[in-house]
Write a structure and sequence with these properties.
Helix content: 25-40%
Strand order of the largest sheet: 6-7-8-11-10-9
Shape: elongated
Strand content: 25-35%
Largest sheet: 6 strands, antiparallel
Distance between the termini: 37 Å
Radius of gyration: 26 Å
Number of strands: 11
Structural class: alpha+beta
Length: 257
């Protein structure tokens, strides 16, 4: 027999009576999964034992055991007259992938597309970026703005702020070498990278270079690159045309632990 139910804001689940897995454990696993993935937020109140038993067509003893198991793991707190509340705070974890493979992909992208450098200047970055680099008063970074294309189609608008680029920043070199090659030519080795991928509307300047209307939805990637001492050496913001660029990752269980 299968009982198909809805528990508050939880997705539907099925408790299978003739399964070798006990009913209490099925219910416990279902609630635990939705606590750990953030569906049930910290502080959310769970149904009572009676409410669970009625919704899932199980005994109160079965519902109580499921809640007791969750409490034993510290995922919920059970208080007389106050009910059962979630006590687990969900925090999304970043996906981890091998850096070597990622850097090779970046090299490949740089070698198989055409860059156009729009600007190379020494300047003081915006306050939030200056704070991330822990810049002293008056200290500047190298700002490089460029567009990458394949054929006649521009697909990415790149703005970077870099520390330690003291050589080989001439426009002709920047348009003939990848960013990683430029770093190595300046004695900078990237040891750690953090990336955030989201969406962003095209500004007038970016829209002009990518050939879209202002406000057009773009993929937005922010990449922070660190040296072996965990010092931030590069802050890159790329806006990608979604029809001309795809961001793919091929992960195995070993790379996402």
């Amino acid at each position: 027999m299968v009982t198909d139910v809805q528990l508050g804001s939880l997705p539907k689940t099925k408790l299978i009576e003739d399964s070798p897995t006990p009913l209490y454990y099925q219910l416990y696993s279902h609630i635990k999964h939705n606590i750990l993935n953030g569906t049930l937020e910290d502080g959310a109140q769970l149904p009572t034992e009676l409410g669970l038993s009625q919704s899932f067509n199980i005994s109160r003893i079965t519902a109580k055991r499921a809640l007791d198991e969750l409490a034993a793991e510290g995922l919920v707190a059970r208080r007389r007259a106050k009910g059962t509340h979630v006590t687990h705070h969900y925090e999304p974890k970043p996906v981890k992938a091998p850096l070597v493979g990622m850097l090779q992909e970046l090299e490949f992208l740089g070698q198989h597309s055409d860059p156009k450098v729009l600007e190379v200047i020494e300047a003081r970055p915006p306050a939030n970026i200056a704070n991330e680099f822990a810049l002293a008063d008056g200290e500047t970074l190298t700002k490089i703005t460029r567009v990458r294309s394949r054929g006649n189609e521009p697909f990415g608008y790149y703005t970077s702020w870099s520390k330690g680029l003291t050589h080989h920043t001439e426009k002709s070199i920047l348009e003939s070498k990848t960013r990683l090659e430029i770093f190595r030519m300046n004695g900078i080795e990237i040891a750690h990278v953090k990336q955030i991928l989201s969406a962003k509307s095209a500004t007038i300047e970016v829209a002009r270079e990518l050939g879209v209307e202002p406000g057009f939805a773009l993929l937005s990637l922010i990449r922070r690159s660190f040296d072996k001492d965990e010092n931030l050496v590069d802050f890159l913001h790329v806006r990608y045309h979604p029809d001309r660029f795809q961001y793919q990752m091929d992960l195995t269980p070993e790379t996402i632990k």
